[in-house]
Design a protein that fits this description.
It is built from 8 helices and 10 strands. By secondary structure, it is an alpha/beta fold. The protein has a 5-stranded mixed beta sheet. Strands 1-2-3 form a 3-stranded antiparallel beta sheet, with no helix packed on it. It has a two-stranded antiparallel ribbon with strand order 4-10. A hairpin with a 3-residue loop joins strand 2 and strand 3. The protein is globular. Pfam families: Peptidase_M57.
Length: 267
């Protein structure tokens, strides 16, 4: 009888563990069908309508830009413009000089990488000063883990562009990709890249993402947010720019001389 009770208790424990795993393991999300009406709007904005993913009311474009469907109608259709080097959006951070407070709600490694990213910007003596704060209260940018479905959708992270003169408020990072990154400077480059979007930087190779991402040439277009050539930067891709559309998580890309010219011109 004692053995039977032990076996029964063990079987019950296994059953409970299996049940807990089933409840805690999210199902792989199913991408939503993007209505033709939305694809037409995306195409009118200059994006490649063949490379749009949608989940939970959000469009994922350019690999790391999240745009709520509800905001599409607020964006003005643009035109594809000639290929140049460094680019900014129409919207930039206002009120310069200004201190940008960055709160990191992630493990220590991400905080250390953010400190490096902040130091890179601050070394340029811009009218923007970046500092990491220990509270979300009053933070201009919060860096935190992305939702669980980012991993299943293959999204490494996301940010956005300035709104109403303020930097975009949130950077989401997919820990399944970045927790195992061993090069802290590579992680800092990724964070600096997303911070670049938050203050109004477009991808350096936005006119031809195949330069850094491979595959078929793809022009991101105006995107309704502007793709303005920054004077003083050359034409043609910049091989090591921190704002290239794609890169490896381990890859360290400090600011190039062209990146520095672009940042100094804007801020």
């Amino acid at each position: 009888m004692k053995n039977y009770l032990k076996i029964s208790a063990y079987a019950l424990l296994l059953l409970l563990l299996a049940s807990c795993q089933d409840q805690n393991t999210p199902e792989q999300p199913q991408l939503e069908d993007v209505p033709n009406e939305i694809l037409d709007k995306v195409d009118a904005l200059g994006f490649n309508a063949n490379e749009v993913r949608m989940y939970d009311g959000t469009l994922f474009i350019e690999g790391d830009i999240a745009i709520p469907v509800s905001k599409l109608d607020q964006m003005k259709p643009g035109q594809r413009i000639p290929t140049e080097e460094q680019y900014s959006t129409d919207n930039l951070v206002a009120g310069n000089p200004r201190t940008i407070n960055v709160f990191v709600d992630m493990p220590q490694k991400y905080k250390d990488a953010t400190d490096i990213a902040n130091a890179r910007y601050n070394a340029e003596s811009l009218n923007l000063t970046f500092q990491r704060v220990t509270s979300s209260s009053g933070a201009d940018i919060t860096i935190k883990a992305s939702p669980w479905y980012y991993r299943f959708l293959g999204i490494l992270g996301s940010a956005g562009f300035p709104e109403n003169g303020n930097p975009y408020h949130t950077i989401l990072m997919t820990r399944a990709y970045y927790d195992n990154v061993s090069n802290i400077n590579g992680l800092a480059t990724t964070i600096a890249h997303e911070m670049g979007h938050c203050i109004g930087m477009r991808h350096t190779d936005y006119m031809d993402r195949s330069y850094s991402c491979g595959g078929v040439p793809d022009n991101e277009g105006d995107g309704g947010v502007g793709a303005n050539h920054i004077p003083g930067t050359p034409t043609g891709p910049d091989a090591n720019s921190w704002m290239l559309a794609c890169g490896t998580p381990e890859g360290d890309r400090p600011f190039t001389s062209n990146d520095q010219v672009a940042l100094d011109y804007l801020y």
